[in-house]
Design goal:
alpha+beta, 22% strand, 309 residues
Length: 309
């Protein structure tokens, strides 16, 4: 059994700490990013608690052969969305074998998670003669179980992190089964919320599909998505807490930061990375970069510096 507490000085480092999850964090609110991860693994079960100081878009995919239950550790200061669906403190996110995910995480969100080997969990369900409703509940993305069952699962996760025990894996399986046993179908979502999340997701996809040297324009987005500028603006404010022009710019700033951290100064200059991402005015770029990440791009840790330490 292993348990460790890790404080990441940079969210890109945090994402790289679990390569099998293919995670990427895009910072969306200005400030020096801080994060903390407490995790335990043993007997085919992985439990973690992660907190991030700033608002991020977290993208990744569940490793193949795994089944994951995730929930908020406490009430969030803003709306958390997974796959465009709202995730509240009374809800559970269920991810299955290799499933991709995108989480809009407001600043300061604490996320708890327990991951099982899928085959082991299903064997446990079969052995315990779980009713058909348990299997159907796993087809949802965000489900809302009975409060008592969710509270027990949260308490079991916290207990296993604070005082790991050999019986913890079995107790977590029982708690997860009970969450599914009393869960309704997929939590109902407001149509307006779903529509807003869809516009943001499609805008994000268009931005990543475009040539990096040609930043997507808002009018182009409206045309491609067949929506009005006002509707797009309202959707972004509702889902991301930022207007579309700022959100799109932050995506490109995050792309520059990832490139800088992955290369040495000799391999890639700051100015080249900025121009490649569509920033023509280097003074404005440096100002926006510092405002978002809390440091000038020239001060961002480069790969060579990381290798030398």
């Amino acid at each position: 059994m292993n348990s460790q507490l890790v404080a990441f000085p940079d969210f890109h480092v945090g994402g790289a700490s679990a390569p099998e999850w293919n995670q990427r964090y895009l910072q969306m609110t200005p400030g020096l990013m801080r994060s903390a991860l407490l995790e335990w693994s043993g007997n085919g079960v992985h439990v973690f608690r992660k907190w991030i100081s700033e608002r991020v878009v977290q993208q990744g995919s569940l490793p193949h052969g795994q089944l994951c239950f995730a929930m908020l550790g406490k009430e969030a200061a803003g709306v958390v969305r997974v796959q465009g669906r709202e995730l509240g403190v009374e809800d559970v996110l269920v991810l299955r074998d290799g499933q991709e995910f995108e989480i809009q995480r407001p600043a300061g969100v604490e996320l708890l998670s327990v991951t099982f080997g899928a085959s082991s969990f299903f064997e446990f369900l079969d052995a315990s003669q779980a009713p058909a409703d348990v299997y159907r509940a796993m087809a949802g993305v965000v489900i809302r179980p009975r409060t008592g069952a969710l509270r027990t699962l949260v308490e079991q996760v916290r207990e296993q992190l604070s005082a790991p025990s050999a019986r913890g894996a079995s107790e977590l399986m029982h708690a997860a089964r009970n969450v599914l046993a009393v869960a309704p179908a997929v939590r109902p979502q407001r149509e307006s919320s779903i529509a807003a999340a869809r516009l943001v997701k499609e805008s994000h996809q268009i931005a990543f599909a475009r040539d990096v040297e040609q930043p997507v324009q808002i009018d182009d987005l409206c045309h491609r998505l067949r929506t009005s500028r006002r509707t797009l603006q309202n959707s972004f404010n509702r889902v991301t807490g930022a207007p579309p022009v700022v959100y799109m710019r932050n995506i490109r700033l995050n792309a520059v930061r990832r490139r800088l951290m992955a290369t040495s100064a000799g391999e890639l200059s700051v100015s080249t990375a900025a121009v490649d991402a569509g920033f023509d005015h280097l003074g404005h770029f440096a100002g926006n970069y510092k405002q978002l990440f809390g440091e000038l791009p020239s001060l961002t840790a480069r790969a060579s510096a990381a290798r030398d330490r």
